[in-house]
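FAQ: What does the model actually see?

It sees only this:
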Amino acid sequence: MRDLKLGPNGDVIIEDGDAATVSDNDELNQRIAVTLQTRLDEFEPEEDSWGLTRENALGKAFNEDFLREDIEDAITSQVDERISVQEINFDENEATRSLSVDIKYTIPDSDEAQTVNANLGGDD
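And it is asked to produce this:
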């Protein structure tokens, strides 16, 4: 698949006067990050819900085990059901009230593990 390339703040990247694109693993990484950074039901391009619930991600309700399940469910149900999540690591920063997530995953067509990072809260 192919998609518009997004910068760290979500803006479309322009290269040589044209909108840049991403494909293959880069497109999949971007799709995972965008899905996880979108609050559930914040944006609904179709009738299906899209995004990640923040219930277990931020504040006093932060629960790594429940959040791992939420992330895996969001990825397999909204991005690609063939994705196999291998590892999820969290980096919580209470001072900035942010939570960064590193996800290691594979897809059946490739034995090579991919890693994607998503910021689930804060101003980063």
